[in-house]
Amino acid sequence: YAMLLSLIFLIVLVAAVVGFVFRHEIKTNFESNLNLALRDYNVTADRHSEAVDTIQRTLHCCGVQNYSDWERTEYFTQRGIPRSCCKSQDDCSTEDLKDLSKAKLKVFVDGCFFLVTSTMESKMSVVAGISFGIACFQLVGIILACCLSQYITNNQYEMV
């Protein structure tokens, strides 16, 4: 049991170190994937398009760096900026969303990349605290399992 807990503890430790070391690559990959999702955004609502819509609605953002990122997409030429960028769903018309100057007043202008990464970084202290607490319980479990094993082997040859 102590060996199993030690193995799990080492795996979690390695995952934390790798995540910390490669955090810049994770950000870069996220940004490129978000750009790809915007480029491939479509009306058929595949899971990437739904993810973009969810991010934009939840964080009140639009595009990767800002709302004008949509101008370079095929979706914009057909329908304009998606409705998930609208500040108010009732006040967004299709004509407004096709014109960037009008859309600026109707949609969120901040980009999603900065908001997602800053939200993740602000929550990292909570994740680190929870992980540290779990690691402490694992270490206590390892120590107690070793003590129990030692107690069993010491008392094995005792006369009754």
TrEMBL record:
It is a multi-pass membrane protein. It comes from the Eukaryota. Keywords: Glycoprotein, Membrane, Signal, Transmembrane, Transmembrane helix. It is found in: Membrane. SUPFAM superfamilies: Tetraspanin. GO terms for cellular component: plasma membrane. The chain crosses the membrane at residues 126-152. Residues 1-19 form the signal peptide. InterPro entries: Tetraspanin/Peripherin, Tetraspanin_EC2_sf, TSN6/7_LEL. May be involved in cell proliferation and cell motility. This is Tetraspanin-7. It comes from Chordeiles acutipennis (Lesser nighthawk).
